[in-house]
From TrEMBL:
Belongs to the class I-like SAM-binding methyltransferase superfamily. TPMT family. GO terms for cellular component: cytoplasm. InterPro entries: SAM-dependent_MTases_sf, Thiopurine_S-MeTrfase, TPMT. The keyword ATP-binding does not apply. S-adenosyl-L-methionine binds at residues 16-27, 56, 77, 121-122, 139. Signal peptide: none annotated. It catalyses: S-adenosyl-L-methionine + a thiopurine = S-adenosyl-L-homocysteine + a thiopurine S-methylether. This is thiopurine S-methyltransferase. GO terms for molecular function: thiopurine S-methyltransferase activity. Its main location: cytoplasm. Keywords: Cytoplasm, Methyltransferase, S-adenosyl-L-methionine, Transferase. It is an enzyme of class 2 (transferase). PANTHER family: THIOPURINE S-METHYLTRANSFERASE.
Length: 196
């Protein structure tokens, strides 16, 4: 499948930061995602106290929902504004500390300790820093990374998950010749080749 004009498209970190500054965040949803509600049992697999990863988390409301169920949530987001808005939107007290292994990165953690959001590039993370995860909710992350970085992204994600983890991935389907993205169109064949 040829994704046409999207293949070379690159969205810089600055552009993402600007979207948050300008409030141009149509991708943020105030309501819990219906697909997460529908497939929650697939993600949790009957287990409690899971570690769940939100790549490119923004201020996703599902993070609090899952944390309130007793899971530990870890997210990564390049916009500090988004991270701070998450905590203020939910009136959650938090503390902020540097991440020694990543220059310039900060980690924002809820006082209750069950939500930790890393403010940095996702590519700076590794399992030695954040550990491994039992579940991943990828809503708008794979489709937001630049097409040229997809392989790198998938390799990182595979490295961050435990053997028996669940990975819920939401993609978008449309004619890539009509929109430049993001969100980018990722054909199913490519998802299979990325994640195996």
């Amino acid at each position: 499948a040829d994704t046409g004009p999207q293949k070379e498209r690159v969205v810089t970190e600055e552009e993402w930061l600007q979207k948050w500054e300008m409030g141009n965040i149509g991708f943020h949803k105030e309501q819990r995602h219906p697909l997460l509600q529908k497939y929650l049992d697939v993600l949790l697999n009957g287990k409690s106290g899971l570690r769940i990863f939100f790549p490119l988390c923004g201020k996703a409301v599902e993070m609090k929902w899952l944390a309130d169920m007793g899971h530990t949530v870890v997210g990564v987001e390049v916009s500090e504004q988004a991270v701070k808005e998450f905590f203020s939107d939910h009136s959650l007290p938090y503390c902020e500390e540097p991440v020694p292994e990543i220059s310039g990165a900060k980690m924002f953690q809820s006082t209750s300790g069950n939500i930790s959001l890393y403010c940095c590039s996702i590519y700076d993370l590794s399992s030695s820093i954040v550990g491994k995860f039992d579940g991943v909710w990828d809503r708008g992350a794979l489709v937001a990374v630049n097409p040229c970085d997809r392989q790198r992204y998938a390799s990182l994600m595979i490295n961050l998950v435990e053997k028996n983890s669940s990975y819920l991935l939401v993609t978008v389907s449309y004619d890539p010749n009509k929109h430049k993205g993001p969100p980018f169109y990722v054909p199913e064949s490519e998802i299979k080749s990325l994640f195996g």
